[in-house]
Amino acid sequence: MKKIRTRYAPSPTGFLHIGGARTALFCYLFAKHYNGDFVFRLEDTDVERNVEGGEESQLNNLAWLGIIPDESPLKPNKKYAPYRQSEKLEIYQNLISDLIKKGNAYKAYDLPEEIEKQREEQEKKGIASFRYDPNWLKINESEKLKREKEKQYSIRLKLPKNKIFAWEDLVRGHIEVNSDDIGDFVILKSDGYPTYNFAVVVDDHQMEITHVLRGEEHITNTPKQLAIYEAFGWKNPEFGHLTIITNMEGKKLSKRDKTLKQFIEDYKNEGYNSEAIFNFLALLGWTSADKSEIMSREELIKKFDPARLSKSPSKFDIIKMEWFSKQYMKKVENSKLISLINSPKNKEWNELFVETYKQHAVTINELKENLKIYLNPKQNLENCIATNSVVKTFFNELKKVSFTIENIQACIDKTKDILNVKGKDLFMPIRIAATYEEHGPELAKAIYLFGKDIVFERLNKCN
Ligand code: GLU
Question: What is the pTM of this model?
């Protein structure tokens, strides 16, 4: 069997977005499941939209997620290089010349304003989507020559009439489009740059890509690409179009929506666990046959089955994302967490701190924030609400014993018995008086982590 090859081909126009990361992830899982190769290449011909460092950022963020391409501009396989479209302009232009020679493509001399006029006329006639009419433009030979000289032409693919372009979509099943509904389209722009549809076909063909997984916004491009494959007499890869990702209200994610963290960089900077994000993204539009949720990279690779890609939109559920992050945080080795939080305290204290706080933390930054509570203990509490019997009783008991987690716990239990209070009425006053915080992890541990001196000083103040 032919080696499976998938690819992720972003434009370096910005940072790695959740949508792109998910596409890359599915391509990666697909390739790895079948022992194939996952290729990263760049669609960087839209020079004006390229951003400085875009390529690097895409690759770095993918690497952070653990998605390491087998081939990329930085790790090229000679057989398939180059991996940046901007370095292949001559290749595209030569192939286009071949198509012109074969009669499958032609020069179209329409100026942009003439195309606009044609479009308006079609709109007036009620034609919903524009279809280029090669006979619309009426110019004489000398005008044509002038435009030829000034390179005022684009190259269009000559589509066969009334021909069905069809494919079995890996996600959606059979899709077909009639060539008459497409119209001859541009494959080389007047500036000498190929269009996306043309370049992507050449790249996929030359790189021997076997399966193309991409966002559903590309469904309308696929018949055009099939037409190009046919014009060349090349075999096309298989296609699968992933459904959109929506926000909680069911609306398509908009990059402009600032209320949601949509860039992988955001999660990296906030100290999320990359394995958790990897796992979460894999479930954005895919489910495992056994319905498991927490799965390692290896398990996901093993279980990945393209037949289980969802046909309905996937909701980006931030609550679920946090839940995943918590599950992963609990599993991280204490020593690893200690190495990440930069704590000046001793080993035993650090051990207890991370063990206690990792039970509920979502991110490393959250652990760091919690660490500050101990490194710079608050001096005063604005409202010392804790001058009540619970605190007094607890403190009385605490004074009688040595300062250990077990003894602190025993004093809390004793207070409960003596005063016959429980739940919030018991824990809240003690927590506030001893830790100066309303929330925190297991109370006895939180108190112990502050150390006897600080806790006694605080409890004294409240008495
Ligand atoms: N640069 C295109 C995109 O990011 C790639 C489309 C494709 O995979 O064919 O949407």
Answer: 0.92
